[in-house]
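From the pipeline queue, job 12 of 40. The input is one protein chain; the requested action is below.

Action: predict structure.
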Amino acid sequence: MARAFNKFLPLLDRVLVERFLPELKTKSGLMIPEKSQGKVVQATVVACGPGGRAKDGSTVPLTVKFGDVVLLPEYGGTKVELDKKEYFLFRDSDILGKFES
């Protein structure tokens, strides 16, 4: 269980992520208009809850941890604003995968 903020800690199987910024330029240096920028589906995990609960009451550990780079669904998540920055809350089961470093 990692804590990125003293004021906020996700509960159960929730994961707080910070999405990557969208690309503003192409590799050749051309500016990309806002309407053409795709939704960013990669993010960094900044805080995790302790894990979900199984039917027998035991704790099911999360599959991600603080600092992991994850792949998110295009839509979903709950927007949370902390310290004037935008973050998103997802359930551990909603995260599509993680990238190995």
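Job complete. Residues 64 and 70 are 8 Å apart (CA to CA).
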